[in-house]
């Protein structure tokens, strides 16, 4: 071993690996260089003691937070934190820091916050104990802004994608034609509605300059596109376009260009609304826009157009259809009585205001399907559509007169006026417009002269309408005034023994006398009076039947008619049960008579009600069997017990072979179905004998007795039926 070299100590590194020992001056210079390096760094650096007091801060840290560096010394290092995050540091927390790196928000002197990236490290002394904290701080505002821009860009791109998808769906489903052109005016897109209406496909047109306009509209089309390229918006421009097969379409065109951020045209969108049918309708009906300036009502020209339209629409139907309700209509000619007196005495300004009020009142009396016009001066014309019969018209006419007759308060004057109305009906009075107007005018003057208020063109119709209205008004109070009576007609068996009776309604009017049921029953049905009236008949008949049962006629049954209107009542079953409970009549002694037509109004509902009542013991009979339109097809569905053979078959039963066969067929069918039969209208012994021989077990008619009051019927019950002479008629009164 070379003795000139010192021996290496075991466990020690060679001399060349030992750190160079610095002199105090060198160490001072080295520290100075480090300080300069820290001072010129772009990131902030601060050193704090274990109490968190700043002992050093570089200029970057001070500038970053808006402070002078010297003012930060001895300040707590939490000065850079927002107030809600400032908490004292414990020694245990500090010891746990080992290059703690985090992103957070720091507080500037001016109170604003900004994002930073912070790294904290614990400084240890020679013994390895913590002696201070070094924190570096980097302002990452620009980075965060960039990240935000990236995220926002991604969000915007996604929103644009979704928006594009939505707009694509809208374009595909919108019902109006749409064309999208590129900046050069070439077709870029056609929606399905365009292809459907114009018969061009996108594949055929894409990339081509097509404007779908007739040659004579090319110049106009070029001007429109020039305006669009200049940034103008076209809205509702009416023009003409052609389909693939050169069929012209009248369209309402709207369009606009779309531009980039530098206002450079990127393309244009054109939408078209097909106005062909609408334009045609507008041209046909444009004269209806003419209205009276004073009242706001359509004027005479509008009336003439509407009258022609109504005539043309109605005349297109056949003669039979024209007499149906949907094709019948009425023309009313209304004139104000003595209106000239108002103008002459109070002035035209008062008269004008009265006309305005009259017009308003008239409109409130009409349906939407009706039309009213100011014809001339104080004259008005009205078209009433879809009338059932003349009584509907009479009712409206009276309503118009009543409304006009109410007082008018005009500029301090309380005024009264009446109106005269003439009525003509289509097609009964005429199918010509001039004749209808003339007839209504004549009827109006007749009403004015006679002081009747309103008048139909024909005297017969006028009388019928007045009579019906009078009956309707009387009918509403007749029940309360006890004008109705129940008569009873006997029902006999084939041995001429009385086994029951039918309850029949009679009306004894105090002024008009006895009114036929054929006159007032239809009115009662129409007005709904039949509902309380029918209940009264049922209650009266059941009460009377129970009284006779109490007197020993225990096998007696009573028949009561149910009307179509009663069958529709939801509380029909409850009403019948209530009457039976009050009168104590056994359900099997009540027979309810219904008609085929009444059942067929709503067969499911009516049959269900019949089943419920039949289950309680009540019997049902079909009245006037053989005259309905569904006798055989629905007979097996009906819960009935008796068929009533209509009088039309009985009248000539002794001489007419066809009637005889019909009667025999009905009786045989009833027997096979285990039903009884009652023949109506039996007036002679021959008829009675034929029916009995044919197997009919029950009969009813003048041969056995007329309908009669209860006291006469009871008196007749006490004596046997008389013997009849052949061919004679004997009445039960």
Taking all Cα atoms into account, the compactness measure Rg is 52 Å
Q: Strand order within the widest sheet? A: 18-19-21-22-23-24-25-26
* Main beta sheet: 8 strands, mixed, barrel
What fraction of the residues are assigned to beta strands by DSSP? 15-25%
Distance between the termini: 173 Å
Low-confidence stretches: 1-12, 722-733
Number of strands: 26
Helix proportion of residues, in percent? 40-55%
Report a brief summary of the structure.
Helices cover 42% and strands 23% of the residues. It is an alpha+beta fold and 733 residues long. The radius of gyration is 52 Å and the shape is elongated.
Describe this protein's structure.
The protein is of the alpha+beta class and 733 residues long. Helix content is 42%, strand content 23%. It has an 8-stranded mixed β-barrel with strand order 18-19-21-22-23-24-25-26, surrounded by 5 helices. Strands 2-1-5-4-3 form a 5-stranded antiparallel β-sheet. The protein has a 5-stranded antiparallel β-sheet with strand order 7-6-10-9-8, sandwiched between helices. Helix 12 (339-346) packs antiparallel against helix 13. The chain is elongated. The relative contact order is 0.04. Mean pLDDT is 85; it is low at 1-12 and 722-733.
């Amino acid at each position: 071993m070379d003795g000139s070299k010192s021996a290496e100590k075991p466990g020690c590194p060679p001399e060349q690996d030992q750190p160079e020992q610095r002199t105090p001056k060198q160490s001072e210079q080295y520290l100075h260089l480090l300080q300069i390096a820290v001072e010129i760094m772009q990131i902030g650096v601060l050193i704090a003691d274990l109490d968190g007091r700043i002992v050093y801060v570089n200029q970057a840290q001070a500038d970053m937070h808006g402070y002078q560096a010297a003012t930060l010394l001895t300040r707590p290092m939490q000065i850079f934190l927002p107030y809600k995050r400032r908490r004292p540091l414990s020694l245990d927390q500090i010891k746990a820091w080992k290059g703690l790196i985090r992103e957070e928000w720091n507080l500037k002197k001016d109170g604003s916050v900004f994002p930073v990236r912070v790294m904290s490290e614990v400084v240890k002394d020679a013994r390895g104990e913590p002696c201070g904290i070094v924190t570096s701080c980097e302002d990452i505002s620009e980075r965060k802004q960039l990240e935000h821009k990236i995220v926002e860009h991604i969000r915007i791109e996604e929103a644009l994608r979704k928006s594009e998808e939505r707009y694509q769906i809208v374009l595909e489903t919108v019902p109006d034609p749409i064309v999208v052109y590129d900046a050069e005016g070439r077709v870029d897109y056609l929606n399905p509605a365009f292809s459907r209406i114009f018969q061009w496909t996108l594949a055929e047109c894409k990339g081509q300059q097509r404007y779908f306009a007739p040659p004579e509209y090319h110049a106009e089309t070029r001007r429109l596109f020039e305006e669009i390229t200049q940034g103008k918006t076209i809205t509702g421009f009416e023009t003409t376009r052609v389909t693939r097969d050169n069929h012209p379409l009248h369209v309402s065109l709207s369009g606009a260009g779309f531009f980039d951020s530098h206002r450079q045209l990127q393309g244009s969108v054109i939408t078209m609304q097909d106005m062909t049918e609408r334009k045609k309708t507008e041209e046909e009906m444009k004269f209806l826009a003419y209205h009276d300036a004073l009242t706001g009502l359509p004027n005479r020209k509008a009336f003439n157009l509407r009258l022609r339209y109504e005539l043309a629409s109605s005349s297109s139907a056949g003669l039979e259809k024209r007499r149906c309700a949907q094709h019948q209509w009425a023309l009313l000619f209304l004139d104000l009585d003595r209106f000239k007196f108002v103008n002459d005495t109070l002035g035209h300004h008062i008269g004008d205001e009265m006309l305005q009020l009259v017009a308003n009142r008239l409109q409130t009396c009409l349906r939407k399907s009706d039309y009213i016009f100011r014809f001339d001066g104080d004259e008005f014309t009205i078209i009433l559509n879809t009338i059932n019969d003349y009584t509907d018209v009479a009712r409206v006419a009276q309503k118009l007169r009543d409304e006009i007759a109410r007082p008018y308060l005009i500029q301090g004057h309380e005024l009264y006026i009446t109106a005269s109305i003439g009525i003509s009906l289509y097609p009964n009075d005429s199918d010509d417009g001039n004749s209808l107007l003339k007839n209504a005018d004549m009827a109006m003057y007749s009403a004015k002269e006679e002081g009747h208020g309103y008048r139909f063109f024909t005297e017969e119709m006028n009388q019928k309408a007045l009579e019906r209205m009078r009956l309707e008004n009387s009918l509403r109070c007749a029940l309360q005034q006890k004008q109705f009576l129940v008569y009873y007609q006997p029902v006999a068996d084939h041995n001429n023994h009385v086994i029951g009776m039918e309850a029949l309604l009679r009306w004894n009017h105090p002024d008009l006398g006895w009114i036929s049921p054929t006159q007032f029953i239809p009115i009662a049905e129409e007005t709904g009076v039949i509902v309380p009236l029918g209940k009264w008949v049922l209650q009266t008949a059941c009460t009377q039947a129970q009284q006779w049962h109490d007197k020993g006629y225990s096998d007696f049954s009573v028949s009561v008619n149910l009307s179509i209107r009663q069958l529709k009542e939801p509380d029909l079953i409850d009403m019948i049960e209530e009457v039976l409970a009050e009168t104590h009549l056994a359900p099997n002694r009540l027979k309810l008579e219904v008609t085929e037509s009444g059942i067929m109004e709503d067969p499911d509902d009516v049959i269900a009600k019949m089943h419920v009542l039949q289950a309680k013991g009540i019997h049902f009979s079909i009245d006037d069997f053989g005259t309905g339109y569904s006798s055989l097809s629905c007979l097996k569905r009906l819960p009935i017990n008796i068929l009533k053979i209509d009088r039309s078959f009985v009248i000539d039963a002794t001489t007419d072979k066809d009637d005889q066969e019909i009667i025999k067929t009905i009786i045989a069918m009833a027997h096979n179905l285990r039903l009884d039969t009652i023949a109506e209208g039996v007036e002679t012994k021959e008829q009675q004998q034929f029916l009995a021989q044919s197997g009919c077990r029950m009969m009813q008619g003048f041969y056995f007795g007329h309908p009669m009051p209860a006291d006469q019927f009871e008196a007749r019950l006490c004596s046997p039926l008389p013997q009849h002479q052949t061919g004679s008629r004997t009445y039960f009164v």
